[in-house]
Structure formats: structure tokens, C-alpha cells
Design goal:
alpha/beta, Rossmann fold, globular
Length: about 240
């Protein structure tokens, strides 16, 4: 039994969707899974396992930021035998043509975090990337649905309330689509444990335009992202 999840062996499926918000994990489980059962309430970071179209799927909250997401990702991969993790969360756009409500699928995750610098003792600028099979499946599924989807580079930041937007502006110049806070850690740990990982985000706000998705519209829009993820992992 792990320190932070606390599930018994066999309670967690080999495929996990991982939102940051534990209440969103609960909503996903109750909305999309059949027979969902809660396997963890440790620190109120809920985890559920149920069925989606005959496939066993777990939903596990990760908390905000790479330190928290790393804890849950590590325990899922190292202690529960999870083989696939798809992060489903929100992101802030830094491109003019990536708008609120759009979906972004992350090929790779640049980061301003020192986590990988420390991991590789400053000797390697590691480039964390998604699993190609999951990426291509999600992109194909999204292309057949209504709404706008972008596939490209994202930025995993350690800072939510920063003093300057200069780093984001520079990242945008180099083609980064959006900023979130977990993908780089997820992709790195998945590579270490030879697992599959993908990040799919709904654009909840635009960092440079001061636009944000109203709270009453988030569930419907986030639901589109979750369906793309579920269809991709069960293909």
C-alpha cells in the first residue's frame, strides 16, 4: 500500500485518467464510468475505478503542480502496475489562434522547473514527450469531433502567479501553445517506468488576452476532453 494513494493491490486499473482536481476526478468517474468505486480518499485526493465501454479505467486526482503530480504518478507506475496515464486538465493559451474552449494535445512539454535539471545532475536538457500511439489516437479522434483541437508543444510551469510574462512570450515565439503545470513530470516518469503517457488540456483562459472560460461552462467543455481521452485509451 502506497503512502499517498493507499489503495489495495488490484484496486487500480492499468489505465488511469489523471485530473489535477480531486473533485473533477469524482465528476469524471460519476459521469463517464459504470460501477465506479472509490479506492482512495487519502488527503481527499480521490481515486475511482469503473468501466468505460467494457474497459476497466481508473480516475486519480494528482493535485496542482509537478511535485504533487510526481508523487501520484510515481506511486501509480511503481507500486500499482499502471501502464497508461492520460492527464486531463486545464491550460492557459499563449498563442493568438488557440482560444478559450479549444483542446490542446501535448506532443512534448518544455518546463521552467528544476526537477529534471536535478534528476540529470545538470548534465542533460531532457525533452519529455508523449507516447506516440496515444498522441496519434487522440488527435485522430479529436479531428472527427466538433470543436477545435491543437497538437503541439506545451509548457509545464512551476509558477502560477508570476511577476513577469517574459518567459511565456519567448516560449510563444518558439511555438509553444499553452501553459499548464504537470505534463513534464508525467512524461518524464512515464519514460522512466516504460509506461505510456499523454496530456490533453482544455484552454480555460488566455494568458495574454485576459479571457477566461466561465465556471458554468467548464464541465461541458471539459467533458469533450475527457471523452477524447477515454476513446484514445480504449481504442
Amino acid at each position: 500500500m502506497s503512502h499517498h494513494i493507499g489503495a489495495e493491490p488490484g484496486q487500480i486499473a492499468e489505465t488511469v485518467l489523471m485530473p489535477g482536481d480531486p473533485l473533477r476526478a469524482k465528476w469524471i468517474a460519476e459521469t463517464f464510468l459504470e460501477g465506479a468505486e472509490c479506492y482512495s480518499t487519502v488527503r481527499n485526493m480521490f481515486g475511482f475505478t469503473g468501466q468505460y465501454k467494457g474497459h476497466r479505467i481508473s480516475i486519480q486526482g494528482s493535485g496542482m503542480g509537478m511535485p504533487s503530480a510526481s508523487i501520484y504518478t510515481h506511486e501509480l507506475l511503481a507500486e500499482y502496475g499502471v501502464k497508461t496515464i492520460v492527464r486531463v486538465g486545464s491550460a492557459g493559451s499563449i498563442q493568438d489562434d488557440v482560444n478559450v474552449r479549444d483542446v490542446v494535445i501535448g506532443i512534448g512539454a518544455a518546463t521552467d522547473s528544476s526537477m529534471n535539471t536535478n534528476r540529470f545532475a545538470g548534465q542533460l536538457s531532457y525533452a519529455p514527450v508523449a507516447d506516440y500511439g496515444l498522441l496519434s489516437a487522440a488527435a485522430e479522434i479529436a479531428a472527427g469531433r466538433e470543436g477545435t483541437t491543437h497538437v503541439g508543444q506545451i509548457l509545464s510551469s512551476d509558477v502560477f502567479y508570476g511577476d513577469s510574462l517574459d518567459t511565456y512570450k519567448k516560449a510563444a515565439e518558439y511555438g509553444v501553445l499553452a501553459v499548464e503545470m504537470e505534463a513534464a513530470a508525467l512524461y518524464t516518469l512515464a519514460a522512466k517506468f516504460k509506461a505510456r503517457a499523454l496530456t490533453i488540456c482544455t484552454i480555460s483562459d488566455h494568458i495574454f488576452k485576459n479571457e477566461a472560460l466561465p465556471a458554468d461552462q467548464r464541465e461541458r467543455t471539459f467533458g469533450d476532453m475527457v471523452e477524447i481521452a477515454l476513446e484514445a485509451v480504449t481504442r
